Amino acid sequence: MEDFKRTYLRLCKEGGVEPQESIVAQLQESRAAQGSRLDLRGRSLSVDTCSVLARSFQKDTAFTEVLLSDCMLSEEGAKVLLTGLFSNTTVKVLDLKGNNLRSTGAEVLGKLLARNKTLQRLVLEWNALGVWDEAFLLFCEGLASNTVLTQLDLRNNQINHHGASELALALQRNATLQVLDLRWNNIGLLGGRSLLEALQKNKSIMKLEMAGNNIPSDTLKALEQTTGHNSDIQSTLRESRSRTQVLSKEIQTLKEEKGRQFLTLMETIDRQREEMGRSSGSTSIQIGQLQEALNERKSAVNSLTAKLQMTEAALALSEQKNNNLGELLTRVKAEKEEQRERQSRERKKEQEESAHREGRLLREIQNLTETNSQLVTKLEEMERRCKSQQQQIFELKQELTNSTAELKLQLAQAEDRLEIEKRRSKQALQDMDSLRQKEVEHVNRHLEESERALQERIFKLEGQRIQLEEELSKAKAACVTERAQAEEEMGRVRAQVRQEEQEHVSSLEEKLRSVRTCLQEVQFHCSQQKQTISELQAKNSQQSIEINGMRRRTEELQQELSAKDQEKVAEVSRVRVELQEQIGHLQAERTAQGGLKEKISALEREIKVLSSNHREVLLDKESEMSSMLEKLRLKEAEIQRMREDEANRASYLQSAILTYVQGSPLGHYSSPKK
Predict the structure, then answer these.
(1) pTM higher than 0.70, yes or no?
(2) Which of 196, 293, 388, 530 is the most exposed place for a label (fewest CB within 10 A)?
């Protein structure tokens, strides 16, 4: 605020203009109130002051509202002041009420609207912008190219029907103006019709004031209906935009969650693979160590064969110990067989559980297909409703044809009445002619009878005859005037009938236009719903593909586990065979039974350790399988919840479309028929 005051005083000093005390006082008041409004209402501004203000406005100020009503601006001062606002980016409200702006002001206002990109509200009440058609045309061109203005006040601007037609053309190109005030002008019927045609194409104007313009009530009602329809469309567009934003956000969050879950799943699979590789490496190392131990044992056996002669004395004791060892081996074999049976039973249980889970997944997929079929049926219902609306449109067309036929019948009846009147007038003329002829015959007979006796009265009778001829001419003139009056009445009746027919046809055409627009909107909503359903189907197919991939991965893991089990069994059997060979060698040689006992016990401990390790690995794999299945179950529950949410959204959309269709003009027109 202080900067604007300084620039104003500096520019006044540079231009040699004495600053006005009212403007300085207003700037001090605005600074004290810390406001963003420059209020100069009722203060007269000279051309020099306007030029200084214009140069100040060229540098962006802190003011967002500039009130210059009743400032008695001259044409030159208004031009200079408005030129300074061309490049301003802070002023959003401009009030120029009661400044008697004329042709120059209208031209500069048009340029201001074309160049300024921040002005949102413009008040031009009590001016004379509509007096000059060419200047008002430039103003309308600027309004047409403007993309920021939302409120425009043109009350009491002497706008006629030509200016209204130019303003209508500008409104067809403008897409941001929402409030337009045209009260107390001279727009008339033609201007009202041109504005009505413009509002059929403009969908942004939600409020239009047209009082005091000599416009018929039906045109005013049509304008109110179109503005109300535009406001409904804007509200529905805002709701649809908010809903689409919410849906897009939810879809984005779901995608992010799915991506995170997929990454975690891939990480767990990689960890399992690494653990499997480490376990396989450790088992290969253990097998190498066992092979080395066996080689050492073979060398020990070779050394023991040399000591065979020395151990014959302890043969009896060794045989007894061999029997004990045989009993221990049988016990170990029995325990291993029991472990095999337990493992086989557990595998069977796991296979049965996996089959049960697969059946449950198949049932859920069938339920999903049923929900998809229900959505398809809902789509078919919407299409049937569209067809019913098309049927209503066809009925309206039939009503239009019936009304035109009735009007044609009325016209034919009027022509029949006209023919009857013509016949009556002809009959009256014929009656008058016959009466005249009868009177002439009667006079002739009377003359023939009284020709001899009443010759002195011939002149009187001739005078009477002349009078009768004059009366006859008067009667003929009266008949001609009556005939002309009848023809005039007939012309008026025809013009009235044609005007009523044109008005009725125009109203029916407006109804058809509104019905077509409503039908296009319903078709657009149906296409959007079809698109959402196709997207849901695509998501469903993608999720089914992911589930199949998870199944294949679990099957691969089960196959790997079975291969590992087979390898472990082969290793155990090979170790057993080697142990049996060693026992045979011991029984054959009978020399190193004492040392071999310790080695056999060590081998048995190693076998127990290996079996325990194998059990732990199996338990870990089972826990991993259960965790994977639990994740699959959570995924399926999440997918089911998403589908339910999408079904709820589809039902909400359907209900919204139904309420919109019932609240639209189509519903009002179709309700009396029902």
Answers:
(1) no
(2) 388
